[in-house]
Structure formats: structure tokens, C-alpha cells
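Before relying on records like the one below, remember that each one covers exactly one chain. Contacts with other chains, cofactors or solvent are not represented anywhere in the record.
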Amino acid sequence: MVSPAEVATSQEPLSDEEVVTRVLAGETGLFEIVMRRHNQRLYRVARAILRNDGEAEDVMQDAYVRAYEHLSQFAGRAKFSTWLTRIAVHEALARQHRGNRYTELEPMSEREGDPMDRFASLAPDPEQQASNSEIRTLLEEAVEKLPDAYRTIFMLRDVEDMSTTEAAEVLEITEDNVKVRLHRARALLRKSLYARAGMEREEAFNFHAVRCDRVVKNVFERIQKQVPKTGTSVAKTQ
């Protein structure tokens, strides 16, 4: 059986859909590939909703287990990453609703134009490198203060680079509403350092390797308990 590490280092990495097909065919250990591939995105979107590292991590594990349990239902009508992110969003919102902390924003009319650009992708000079840590902290704090729905849209669109269509599919709202919420999020951030954060946007809200390993390990332990029910075996990971 091919290991996830061997697949990851191959010249032509498997697509998510190819991994799913092989997992369904019995190579369940390859599920690690999609987990490591999408841990960053799921962490960011879950944390954007819950604003708590521990709860976001729990949601990630719940989302992966639920996705594994319903993998045969993935029909390919949307990208696997979209399908998986939608599951994580539902899990996060369900947890938030149970805590009675979520207030849905009413749809608003879209304003024409948006003066806000994405984060600059300029290579920082030594002085910028020295201040990036502080800037990143200030940016994360500013994003943290956004209203729930705006924060989630900002994370999906401007941090994860999802398209308007994909974000709409994940959150099950209209594309116009995505545009409106993103516009408002950017407007709220304009007064802070959003317009002058000379840093790579991918550096914000990182999901580090140790935590990545922990999520993968915990998900496989939960899946392993289901093996007698499914009749499949899970390959051990390092």
C-alpha cells in the first residue's frame, strides 16, 4: 500500500478527488493527505467563527470525522475543498449556536466599488522583517474584533483566497451578500493597519506543524474506532 508520505513526494500529487476515490477503495490511510492539505484553511475558518483556538481545533476534528463518515456522499458537484470547508463551517456554527453566541447579520444592499486592495505581497526589507511580528499581531487583533459574519468572509476571501462563488457556496449565501460583507469588513479594517500591513497575508493565523500532527493523530484514532463498522483498515501514520 502506498503511504501518504510517498504520495506527497511524488512528482504529480494526487488531487483531492483522486485521494477520495482511493480512500473509498480501501486506502484509508491516504485520508491524511487531505487533512494536512486543508488543516490551515479549516483552522482559519473555524477560528474566525469561534474566536477560540481550542474550540477551532475541536471543530476541525469533528469536521474531518464527519467528512470521512460521509465520504461516499461526496458527489463532485463542487470542489472537495469547498465541500469540506462547508462541513467545517456547519460544525463551527452549530457549536456557536449551542453557546448562544452567534448573531446573524441581515443582508445589506451592496455599495458600488471598493477602494480596498488585498494585502500587499511586497518582499519586506530588513526593517519590515523586524516589525512584521508586531504588525501581524495588530492585524490579527483587528480581524478578531470584526463582527462574526464579516470576520468569516474576510478569512475566506482575503486570507484563504477563495473566490466569491466558492465562499457563497461554503456559507450558503448569495454572491452579492459575500461582496457586501467583504466590503464592510474591509471598511472596518481600513482605520487600522489593514491598508499599511506590509506583510504576507498567509502569515496570519498560522496553524503550526505540531498542532497539525495532533489533529491528524486524533482524527485517525476516532476513525480507527469505526473500523469494525466499516470493515476497512486504517494505515498507521508516523
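The domain at 4-102+208-230 is CATH 1.10.1740.10 (Rna Polymerase Sigma Factor; Chain: A).
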